[in-house]
Amino acid sequence: MDCADIAFVVAKFSDAQTHGETALCLDKVVFAYPDVPRVLNEITLRIQPGERLGVIGPNGAGKTTLFLTICGVLRPNSGGVRLFGKAVIPGKFRPEVGLVFQNPNDQLFSPSVWDDVAFGVENLGYGEAEVAERVSQTLTELGILEYRDRPPHHLSGGQKRMVAIAGVLAMQPQLILYDEPSANLDLRSRRRLIEFLNQSPQTLLIASHDLELILELCDRVVLLDQGAIIADGPPIEIMGDRPLMEAHGLEKPSALLSHPPG
To answer: Would residue 53 count as lying in a domain?
Structure first.
């Protein structure tokens, strides 16, 4: 079944996620920067609602470009992206998807943490009471309510990352793209994030070099290298294959060192 067929089926339901239809469909997506040909090389991928997909690969594999294409920041040279049955139109805001950037400084700009987390919710058109409730709940769940009045540029790198995550979570998207979510987090914050994401009802795509985090959170992994999907399957099977991992610039996670490949 190709993306057009999937879209036809999804259109018969008012809520694709509720009815278990495809959350995300990429059909032979190609993207190239002017000086770098084929950063994404005919990516075909389908994600079901509620899946937690880990995206792994060496630096320069195309992970961040893939995420920017999924949420419509970048326009593919060819191929199509569909989100819950509807085509993603580059430059058009889709509240169903949220992106947590790799660098939180690209995401934080308001004078206080509270204002930053509230910004997206306010722009969705919610009233003051709903905005306050969502912001307070999200900051509390992430354990960072104490930062509410602090300027984001006064925070550490790990604290900024948690605030950036909160800003996306407060908008309550159905699908969230996390680009290196555990970078710069101390052990306590990393553990809190893992516990939070384990309880998350959203469909998750997580790109990370933190392979232990991928093992804990994801039920499926794709290995990306040179813009192509090299492998797609259960995390233990993919990441437990030492020759495969080493061939693509990665190491077998320490948690799987005693686990045979496959």
So the answer is: yes
